[in-house]
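Handout, tutorial session.
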Amino acid sequence: MNYDHRFHAGNFADVHKHVVLIALLERLSEKPAPWFYLDTHAGAGLYELDRLPQDPPPEFRRGFEILWQATPIDPLLARYRALVASDNPSGCLTRYPGSPLLARRLSRPHDRLAFVEVVPQRQAELKRHLGRRPGVHHRDGFEALLALTPPTERRGLVFIDPPYEQVSEADRLVETLPRACARFPQGVFLAWYPWADANWTNGLKRRLSRIPRISFLDWLSPPRDGLWGSGLALVNVPHGLPERLDRLQPELRSLFRDRLGTTEWRTTWATEGDRDTPARAPRGPKR
């Protein structure tokens, strides 16, 4: 893929990944103990939608703008809309916050966040948008995934959102994710992947399916040229999350039907027994 998030900010894939991200962070905050958040491909953090070329129409027109123009009924969708509204005090949708700003706003004073970005310009933009908030790292995201885990906190979420501009990125995800899960067995891991070529995506999912306690959440529109579906691989599903996401799917499908066509949420959850038992690091050889 040739992917620059400035041009894709707020598209339907962002809606998919950010709704799930918010649900996970809210679930973590239900307990008082601190949590750790790691964003391995953080990007610029905030995107100026009013500066995008208008021909063809930017992707947020068929993405978050649909929620912006609606009055969501589901509390999770309403919370998502309110978080984006905080960056648009004029009432016009001109800016869209990425996952770093969403996570920062959902964090509590005793939670800890780390943001990783390898592109120097994007890292500088991210620092500017986060202000004095510490925890911005200029390094490779997959290298940081292993270097920054396990955290001192016993609970947390790792968000892996590569651009897939290089063929090796899928291979590195398949290689690195199970190692990180073993290092941080109580952690929740969320990794995004695109649906642009069904054979490629199905092959990636087959390779990831070897990871214990992994679930797949796909939001698919009718196939077309370019990105037509968004996928999330989720390791260590928190209790109650499947039911929570099931409740909002009808509203999302209804809201997006006019601009995306008939969409489908296709979920493959890890079995209940697997979900209740976190991954364990492999034991070494007996001595």
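The second record follows below. Compare its token runs with those of the first.
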Amino acid sequence: MAPATALQTSPSLLALHGVGKTFPNGTQALANLNFNVRRGEFLSLLGPSGCGKSTVLRIIAGLTAPSHGSVEWPDPSTHAGKSNRIGFVFQDPTLMPWASVFNNVALPLVLKGVAAASIARRVTAALDRVGLGKFAQAFPRELSGGMRMRVSIARALVTEPELLLMDEPFAALDEITRFKLNNDLLQVWQATGTTVVFVTHSVFESVYLSSRILVMSARPGRIFTELAIDAPYPRDNNFGTSAEYAAFCRRTSAALAQAMAGETVAGDNAAGDKP
């Protein structure tokens, strides 16, 4: 795959302009949020708990409306409203315990009225892609936490989304399982070409996965700075133990610490505020 730098010149898939969100109880979650998402990139939103990262995903998905500003889709055919080209993976797998793995993954297609033959083909392909082809008839209670999350990812992929939103999907998993799923996710991303927006509060995870990181300040959430992770793909344990990776992590950790301290970024560091 091309270096991460190649993704920085990709056309825009969507852009947020002046987005703010204030909840009915008066809590201001987001303020003047400006950034774009480029086609094919792996973009991470990194920030402390409560800074509005999950709210950003819900606004992009159309699950909640911004109080101010707008989300613009340059290509109307990609908009979530009619074409349903967005997949969403939540922190909890949210599987139906009474349904098999196959039926859990098939649910979005069933709700859309897709023909049975097409459902079978697409569900099988999605399960094979996440390494669960042999578990189609298993039930969630029979699976490990990591496997249940794979089912959730397969359910999001089965609709063949152009944009995959992921809200801290691996946060509750042990470190070994998390590392394995990070690698698996990168393989899926590279194979499908799907654009990914990934929410995390882990510096190490964001650096390992991303072509670009947007560091958010504490509530109300804003884009504090943008960091390009210019390491090539595919990435593996060699990258994760390299001096290059450590340097990226130090740089990202410093930016996050500054964001949490409320420092001001000047000049090019504020590039993430400009779509």
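Points raised in discussion: The CA atoms of residues 20 and 68 lie 5 Å apart.
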